[in-house]
Amino acid sequence: MYGRLVGRRLPFLYKAPEEGLKVSALCGGRNGLYLEGSICGIPCLMLVDTSANVTLVRTDLVQKLKENFICTAPNISLKTATGEKAEIRGKLDAAIECGCRKFQHRIYVADITDPCILGLDFLQKFNFTVDLEKNEIRTEGEEMPLFSASAEHSKLCSVLAKEKTIIPARSECLIQGVPEVSGKFRYAVMDFPSQVSQKGVLVAATLVDLKREAIPVRVLNLGNKPKAVDKGAVIATCEPVVDIVARPQEFSESLRLPLILENLEGLNEEQRTAVKELLQEFQNLFSTSDSDVGRCNMTRQRINTGNHPPIKQYPRRLPLAKKEEAERLVKEMVDSGIIEESSGPWASPIVLVKKKDGLTRFCVDYRKLNEITIKDSYPLPWINDTLDALNGSQWFSTLDLKCGYWQVKIQPEDKEMTAFTTGQGLWQFKVMPFGLCNAPATFERLMETVLRGLTSEACLVYLDDIIIVGRTFQEHLNNIRKVFQRLQKANLKLSPKKCRFFRKEVSYLGHIISADGVKTDPEKTKAVVDWPRPETLYDLRSFLGLCTYYRRFVRNFSAIARLLHKLTEARSNFNWTKECEKSFNSLKQALTSSPILTYPRTDKDFILDTDASNEGIGAVLSQKIGNKECVIAYFSKSLGKPETNYCVTRKELLAIVKSIEHFHHYLYGRKFLLRTDHASLRWLLNFREPEGQIARWIQRLQEYDFEIQHRKGTLTEMQMRSLEDPVKRVANIARMQRKSSEWKRTFP
C-alpha cells in the first residue's frame, strides 16, 4: 500500500480562479467507495456515486489526452446536493478499464477532488450492480471489490524528525522522518500540524513508502531566517490509503525526476535548488509512462511514391501462438492511439521478433515500400562540426526523446501506405513507424526546426541526440530552459531515464565530451585491446586480415607482424610461442595508438569492415580521406557458447548485425559501404519469408542504407566451400530454424 503526501498550496503560488470553484462535495471523502481502474491507460481510483447522473474526470488527469479532449463553452454546470456549482471544462470519449473489462464511454471534465467519479449513466449503461453489504460491484458475472476510505484506513499517525535539521532561509530540503507508531500499513502525509505551520515551515506533496527505514519529507522554510527542526519533532501526519494496483510500466518513469535530482554531483545547495525548480517547472515535459508519448504539432511524415501503383503484399502465415501475440500487440497499439483501421489498397507484412527480455517487438517489413519511395535529401549535420562546436563549454546535459518517431504524425493521405495486416483486418499507422527510409531526414528536419536559433550556442542536435552546453552554471541553466520551452511548444516529450543533467563529462556521438575538449571514447580502443589470443590458424588469419588492411597507419607494421604472418604459412604448424604473444600484443598496441583514430567526417562515406572467428567477431569503421583510409573506431565481441556453434556464414552475419548496432550513431540515416570476406552475405537482403533469427537480423538492417562488397583476401578451404553456393548456404540456415520450430511445436 502506498500513500500520497498532500501539502497546502503556498500563499505566493496560489492564484484563485476568477470564476467557478473546486467542487469539494464531488468527492468520496472518508465514506466513499472506490473502484480500481484506469482511464485511457492512466491508473486511478474511481469513486462509485449512484447519485451522480454523469461520469466525471478531474481536469489535470486529461492534460495528457489533449488529442481526444474536446473543449466546451462554460454554459454547462454541475450542482451538488449542497447547492455548490462547478463548470464543465470539456468532454471526451474515453476507454474506462476496470477488472478485466474495458468500456467506451462519454465522460465530462470538471474541477473535482477525486480523479474520477463513475455516475449512474455509466453504471446503468453497462448493467453494473453495487452490493454495499459485500462492498463489491458486479457486471456480467465479474465481481470487483470496492474500497472504503473509512474505518481502519483513516487512522492518523505522526511522523517524527529522525535527527536535528537546519533549513536555510526560503529554501526547501529533505528531512528524514520516522512514523511514531509502526504498523502493517504504508501511510500518506495528509497535513502538517499547526505548530509546524506557525513556524513558517510547510510540507510539500510527496509519494512515500513507509516500509522503508526512513520517510523522506520535503519541508519548505518560507521565512528569511534559517529554521531548526529538532530531533523527535512532529513534522507531518499521515494516514493509510488503499493500494492502487497498476501495470508496473505505468509508473516505471513517473518517479525518475527524484532520481535525476539525486544524481546531481558537484553542485552546491543553491545550484541544486535552482535545478530542482527548473525540472519541477517543466515536469510535464517528461514522460510518465510508456503510453505517455507526445504528439508533435510542427511537422508530419510524408511518403512520396510518385505515380507508382499501390503495393499489396499478402500476410505471412503465423503459428497460432504468434498470431495471438500479434493480435494482442495490435490491440495495444489501437488503445494507445498508434494505429487505426485502414481501407486502402496498400499492405505490408509483419514480422514478430523476440527481444532479449522475452517480450515481442512488432515490426512491419517496409522494404518494398522503401524501394519505390522518393528519398528525402535533407542533409544530416556534420558530426565533426558538431564536436568542434563543443569546445570551450564547461557544463553539459544530454536529452533523449520518448519514442521519438511515435511523436511525429503521418500526413493523413499517406497513412494508408503504412498499412499492414496480420491476416485479420488491415491497419495503418497514425504516427511515423520504424523502418521508413525517410524517417531520419524527417526527424532531423523537425529537431532543427524546433531548436532553430539555439544551435551552436546553446545546444547541438544530431537526430534524436541533443546536447546542451554552457560556459557557466547560470548560462547552462538558461540554455536548458530555452530548450525546454522549445520542446514544450512543439509538444514533444522526454524520457527521464535517458537524460543526463549538469555534467562535467558526458558521452555524445561516441565521444567523451568534457571541459578539456573532445576525446575518443575508451570503449572503442578497448575492443581491440580485449581481442582474445588466437587458438587456431583461422583465428589468427581473421585477426591479421583485420589488421593488415590498415598496415599503412602503423609504423614498422611488417616487423611487428612478421612472426604472426610466418605462423599462417601453409607449411607451418600452429605453435604459439612467447615471441608470438609479444608480437600479438605489440600489434594491438600499435593499432590502438591515438594517431590512427580520426574524427568522423560526414562529407565522406563510412566504410565498415567486419570479420568473425571461432571465438569472436570484430569490425573496423573507417573513411577514405584523400588516398588513405583512416580508422574511426574498432569493435570486437567474444562469442557466447551457442554462437560458437554457428556456421561460418551465420557468424559473419552476426558480425555485421552487431557491428552496425554498435556504430548506430555513425551509420544510421546515411549510406555506407559494408565489406566482408564472405560473398554469400550479398544475398542476405533478397530472402523471401525469413524466419527466426534471420528475420530479426533483416528487420534490424532494413533501417540502414548500405552496399555489401566482397573483400578479397586469402580464404581457407572451408570458406571456399561455403562460397560455392551462397544462396543454398544461407537458405539452409532458415530451413534449420523452421525444423527447430516444428520440433518444438511437436514436442513442447
Automatic annotation (TrEMBL):
UniProt KW keywords: Endonuclease, Hydrolase, Multifunctional enzyme, Nuclease, Nucleotidyltransferase, Protease, RNA-directed DNA polymerase, Transferase
Taxonomy, superkingdom: Eukaryota
GO aspect biological process, one term: proteolysis
UniProt-listed InterPro entries: DNA/RNA_pol_sf, Peptidase_aspartic_dom_sf, Retrovirus_Pol_polyprotein, Rev_trsase/Diguanyl_cyclase, RT_dom, RT_RNaseH_2
Highest classification ranks of the organism: Eukaryota, Metazoa, Ecdysozoa, Arthropoda, Chelicerata
All copies of domain Reverse transcriptase, residue ranges: 334-513
GO molecular function, one term: endonuclease activity
The protein's name in its UniProt record: RNA-directed DNA polymerase
Matching PROSITE patterns: RT_POL (PS50878)
EC annotation from Swiss-Prot or TrEMBL: 2.7.7.49
Keyword Nucleotidyltransferase on entry: yes
Cell wall biogenesis/degradation in keyword set: no
SUPFAM superfamilies recorded: Acid proteases (SSF50630), DNA/RNA polymerases (SSF56672)
